[in-house]
Amino acid sequence: MFNGWSRKVYLELSAPSEEDNRADSTRVLEAIGEREEFARASVRLGIAALRALDRVCRESEWKITATLGYDGDGWEILRVEPGDTTECHYGLCADLGSTTIVMEAVNMQDGSVAGSVSVFNPQIRCGEDILTRIFYAKDHPEHLEKLRLAAVEGLSQAMKELQRQTGICAEDCAALIISGNTTMIHFLLGLDAFCVFQTPYAVHTLAPEVYRASELGLSMRGFVWCCPGRANYLGGDIVSGMIATGIPEREGISVFLDIGTNGELVIGNRDFLVCGAGAAGPALEGGVVKTGMRAEEGAVDAVKITEGEIRVHTIGNARAKGICGSGIVELLAELFLNGWMDLRGKLIPGVSDAVFEEEDQVKVRYAPGLSFSEQDIQEFLKTKAAAGTMVEYMMNQIGITMEDVERFYVAGAFGTHISKEAGVTIGLYPDIQRERIVSPGNTSLNGARELLLDVGKKEYAERLVEKMEYIQFGAVEDFVHLMGAAMAFPHTDIERYPSVQEELKRRGRAL
Amino acid sequence: MFNGWSRKVYLELSAPSEEDNRADSTRVLEAIGEREEFARASVRLGIAALRALDRVCRESEWKITATLGYDGDGWEILRVEPGDTTECHYGLCADLGSTTIVMEAVNMQDGSVAGSVSVFNPQIRCGEDILTRIFYAKDHPEHLEKLRLAAVEGLSQAMKELQRQTGICAEDCAALIISGNTTMIHFLLGLDAFCVFQTPYAVHTLAPEVYRASELGLSMRGFVWCCPGRANYLGGDIVSGMIATGIPEREGISVFLDIGTNGELVIGNRDFLVCGAGAAGPALEGGVVKTGMRAEEGAVDAVKITEGEIRVHTIGNARAKGICGSGIVELLAELFLNGWMDLRGKLIPGVSDAVFEEEDQVKVRYAPGLSFSEQDIQEFLKTKAAAGTMVEYMMNQIGITMEDVERFYVAGAFGTHISKEAGVTIGLYPDIQRERIVSPGNTSLNGARELLLDVGKKEYAERLVEKMEYIQFGAVEDFVHLMGAAMAFPHTDIERYPSVQEELKRRGRAL
After folding, report:
1. Is A90 a residue whose pLDDT tops 80?
2. A286 pLDDT exceeds 70?
3. Domain coverage including residue A125
4. Is the dihedral of CA A426, A430, A436, A442 positive or negative?
5. Do A45 and B204 touch (CB under 8 A)?
6. Could you count the other beta carbons within 10 Å of the beta carbon of residue A271?
7. CA end-to-end span of chain A, whole Å?
8. Domains identified in chain A, total number
9. Where does A269-426 have alpha helices with state H?
10. End-of-domain residue from the set B34, B53, B82
11. Could you please report the per-residue DSSP string of B22-50?
């Protein structure tokens, strides 16, 4: 049994008699109060459960199962069913992303994932990226309402799809824990998110209350809680990631880097947590690159240069339609290691037929009809440098070096799909033992699941937020200086990348 | 300032700055947490207030008033307004009667009543009296839903009418406290009330939770709480009456009698409270009497016999259409004192032209075309005897006599309008000093108001219910015996009524 946000309790009640004619509600509440787990808790009987009580008790000869949800302070009986249904007990958790909403039905008895679905965020209708949506909603309450409804629609779609796949009635669940960045949570709550973007970055809320699902417009019995965030650009998705990775509990220092729309960074251990965020996102995911695309069918996701030829792998083994983040990283690593591109990101004309000039730009053809230009490379280099510089700058501030770092986490889909070796080669990752580089997957979702399974983690998350020291990178001169130095593959200071030097030497290509 | 269920707090917040960019929600919650009254309380920011916060704060340069409602455990900010609106602060209380719903808007600053309205309970459509409604709803969920909606409709009408009369927006109120009998509360919550009527009288609930008004279908921002009841026939209206009269706090013993649809009785003081209920109602209100009617225009409400003539007063000085409770009591007292009726309720033929025989029945004409028959008198006598016997039986059980009783309360409209003297003459009231007989008015409503003005009284009411010992009168042999003795005006044991004996002697009419 977990200490989860949803509880099911089987009760064998005595039927009313002349000697014991307590009211039904008293009978149920007293029986629950006798349970160890609710002995010191406040428990109330919700109106829907109260209305069903009569029928359910009589139907089952007073043997009933009560489902309780946690409202942040106490428990509410949300549902009563005839007989013992404690075996069938699920809760929901979700990662509310700007592109994708991932939702899981979690077995509240053993903590296992009973089903997982992923749907596109319908907010995309109102704007492909977050910034477009923020401007779309600004000063237009009706647009904001559209975004809110789209978030609700996305969550509802995910619930329906979960039910279709698993047979679990998501609407009957007593709890839904959501992780998302500050903007996504603002939209879900119906709050204008322009504050996220505008100085002094005082947002409307970073610590949403536990709401009744119905208050948010969700057709679900239970309660909804969104993991609290630390700042405008450091939202509940990252705090949730802390919970998922356990970084704040370990002695060893970790670096946690989440590359998505923005780059979000936390460095710390059980003694300290420093965090910050910066624009280090879209280009790495293929957003700014001309033939870049999402990791969908037909996207080049792996690249090798052998015998002077570029060979690619595509998702679904389909005809190449573009290149996604992991493909870009491998492409650049291969171009660099094979001497097709120098450390400044300049393509070397003549090294291969694949490198050619078109419209005053040098480009490399990585698949029939698809090429990657020096301008694309520069875009990528800039964001790679930004991400790397955030890490370096923050480590300097803390006064540690990469040697002090036990684990280097690269969260999200990006971290999951990029080859570690290629990541190091182009200087996106530091040159450390490869086992210290960890791809923890969707830590936003994983953290939400951990929160769902333990009500105690609500307070933990709230304390965690207070512990996190937020650094504004902004226009620090030092930052700009460091970033200039990082504008190379893997770095202008190649001494930091001994394993890349080694590989170049092996290939007979000393710098 | 009262410790009420609704609070208004004026806050002068600092605007966000680079140095202090706390989220708006944090800014508000921290400012409220600094107030003495909320220092140890749990306070949450409701979704509606959160959504309005941005606009309200900017509009008012961060000088806002927050309205908080009590949810039974903690506080929720339900509304924010620009500027200081603490002077305009109202809560609602209501007496949910089967015939009439009375609602008040209460000034939460000084406890005064800002407005009071009374509307007919629309449930009358589904049945004139409670028992008809109980059978109407039994096994017909759609009928039950109709009754529930009618209760909501009645409360909503009252809210609208209050607003029309006072300008106070009832929907903006943070709290509504309702007192009503167990059946009325069942219907409001959407619960079948057949249990109220059927052994073993285990009802669905006697202690409703604090609900969000919206959960009950009421269009109102705040929370609704119904005063808890003690038993099927001893509901929240009587518990509320205890709070209104202060009986459970005083050293002196009180008798509390509420005559409505049923007769409800509590005897006690700060050391004990014994209660019970019985069928002692409708006849006293004119329900069973042939020309009986409610206390409306045209109802005879006062009667005098002078110089051998019956003179009556009608409500609104209109043409007499029937007779209401207070009229009946005065009529019977006058008939008895003037020797037109004997102590067994037999009319004396020949004593006046007004006494006549018709269809084998002796009747008395009290107004043109309107008469009161011996059968009517017997009905009245039976219920008068039942009420008196409840009191006597319970006093015997406790081991006290009327001399031990400091105050004899007759609650409700009945007690308010009946002449004390006439009440004693016919033996409805005991023959004690008249100042010990108290008509406290609508104690159900008054108690609801006291609850509204003090959140601490919620727990007090809950403890009170536990303290009240409930007696089932039912088929106790002793009870039947005592009732036989009470079947006379004022009583078969005339020695109990020395002042009536005195009056008869004065009139030269020794028994």
Report:
1. yes
2. no
3. 90-226
4. negative
5. no
6. 9
7. 59
8. 4
9. 325-337, 374-398, 412-417, 420-425
10. B82
11. --HHHHHHHHHHTSGGGTTS-EEE-HHHH
Average pLDDT over residues A31-39: 95
* Residue of chain B nearest A190, judged by CA positions: B51
Secondary structure (DSSP) of A244-306: HHTGGG-SSEEEEEEESSSEEEEEE-SS-EEEEEES--GGGGTSSSTTB--S-TTEEEEEEEE
The pTM assigned to this predicted structure is 0.94
Same domain for A44 and A110 = no
Neighbours of A141 (CB within 10 A): 12
Mean pLDDT of A402-409: 96
Give the residue from B264, B267, B256, B253 showing the smallest Cα distance to B180. B264
ipTM confidence score: 0.94
For residue B24, what are the contacts with CB-CB under 8 A and spacing of at least 6? A202, A203, A204, A205, B16, B53, B54, B57
Q: Which residues of A touch B50 (CB under 8 A)?
A: 189, 191, 204-205
Kindly indicate the confidence band of residue A473, based on its pLDDT and cuts at 50, 70 and 90: confident
Q: pLDDT at residue A281 above 60?
A: no
Q: Mutating which of A17, A47, A466 best tests the B interface, going by the most B Cβ atoms within 10 A?
A: A47
**Which residues of chain B lie closer than 8 angstroms to A189, CB-CB?**
47, 50-51
Decide: residue B157, CB within 10 A, 0-12 exposed, 13-18 middle, 19+ buried: middle
Among A80, A76, A74, which Cα is nearest to A56's? A80
- Tell me the per-residue pLDDT of B418-467, one tens digit each, with 9 for 90 and over: 899 999 999 999 999 999 999 999 999 999 999 999 999 999 999 999 99
pLDDT (0 to 100) of residue A280: 63
pLDDT tens across A133-155, in order? Answer: 999 999 999 999 999 999 999 99
Mean pLDDT over A11-36 rounds to: 96
- Do A124 and A217 lie in one domain? The reply is yes
Domain assignment present for residue B198? The answer is yes
Burial tier of B448 (Cβ tally within 10 Å: 0-12, 13-18, 19+): buried
Whether chain B has a CB inside 8 Å of the CB on A190: the answer is yes
Nearest residue, CB atoms, A26 vs list B27, B200, B207: B207
Looking at the partner chain, which of B21, B24, B204 has a beta carbon nearest the beta carbon of A205? B24
- B45: chain A residues, CB-CB within 8 Å: 205, 209
Regarding whether B77 and B94 lie in a shared domain, the answer is no
Q: Is the pLDDT at A510 greater than 70, yes or no?
A: no
| Residue A53 sits at the chain B interface (C-beta within 8 Å) | yes
Say yes or no: B177 and B64 in one domain. no
Q: Are B75 and B98 in a shared domain?
A: no
Residue A222 in contact with residue A176, Cβ under 8 Å? yes
Q: What is the pLDDT of residue A476?
A: 67
**Is A1 a domain residue?**
no
* Cβ-based neighbours of B113, under 8 Å, separated by 6 or more: B104, B105, B106, B107, B449
List CB contacts of B246: < 8 A, sequence separation 6 or more: none
Query: Which residue ranges in chain B fall short of pLDDT 50?
Result: none
Q: What is the per-residue pLDDT across A118-138, written as a single tens digit (0 to 9) for each?
A: 999 999 999 988 999 999 999
Task: Confirm or reject contact between A215 and chain B (CB < 8 A).
Answer: yes
Based on the domain organization, do B257 and B303 belong to the same domain?
yes
**Do the chains contact at B26 and A205, CB–CB below 8 Å?**
yes
**Structural contact between residues B301 and B414, judged by C-beta atoms closer than 8 angstroms:** no
Question: Are B67 and B113 within one domain?
Answer: no
Burial label for A103, CB within 10 Å (0-12, 13-18, 19+), is buried
Q: How confident is the model at residue A290 (pLDDT cuts 50, 70, 90)?
A: confident
Q: Are strands B263-268 and B273-278 parallel, antiparallel or unpaired?
A: antiparallel
Q: Does A283 have pLDDT greater than 80?
A: no
Question: Would you tell me the crossing angle of helices B374-398 and B477-486 to the nearest 10 degrees?
Answer: 130
The per-residue pLDDT for range A207-216, each reduced to its tens digit, is 999 999 999 9
Domain shared by A70 and A149, yes or no:
no
